[in-house]
Amino acid sequence: MDNLENDLPAQTQGEASPTQDDSLRQLVVSILVLLIVVSGTLNVFLLHQASTSRQELEAIRPQVNLMVTQYLKSVSPAMDEFERKLTEFARSHPDFAPTLNRHKLATRGPGPSLPAKANK
């Protein structure tokens, strides 16, 4: 009786049993499959959003082109004329020049022109 032997196999703390290895492997594979499904769903959603946005853009493009054309024909020339008159006024009244310089109107050239036809 003095000599008792352990019949259980000795396991160190770093080792895992085969059933633990299998369950861990199954968990990792399940997570990878779930990740693939979620990323695929996200890609389908983003593709749908891009398609919808492209259709909406094509629908409003003529309206935007009309607005740009109206701006270039009426508003932009009126603003340029007003700026030209302010610059002339500043030349004849030097005390107004600091106000014009503060808003950078005296040194600014002609405004940026928008293209007549927008690129598709």
Tally of extended strands?
A: 0
Q: Report the span from N to C terminus.
A: 93 Å
Q: Mean of the pLDDT scores?
A: 82
Beta-strand portion reads under 5%
Folded structure, characterized:
This protein is mainly alpha-helical and 120 residues long. Helix content is 68%, strand content 0%. The protein has one domain (19-102). It has 2 helices and no strands. It starts with 17 loop residues before the first helix and ends in an 18-residue tail after the last helix.
Secondary structure elements and their pairing?
Layout (H helix, E strand, L loop, with lengths): L17 H75 L4 H6 L18
What are the main properties of this structure?
120 residues; mainly alpha; 2 helices; 0% strand; single chain
Question: Can you describe this structure in just a few lines?
Answer:
With 120 residues, the chain is an all-alpha fold. The chain has helices spanning 18-92, 97-102. It is elongated, with a radius of gyration of 37 Å.
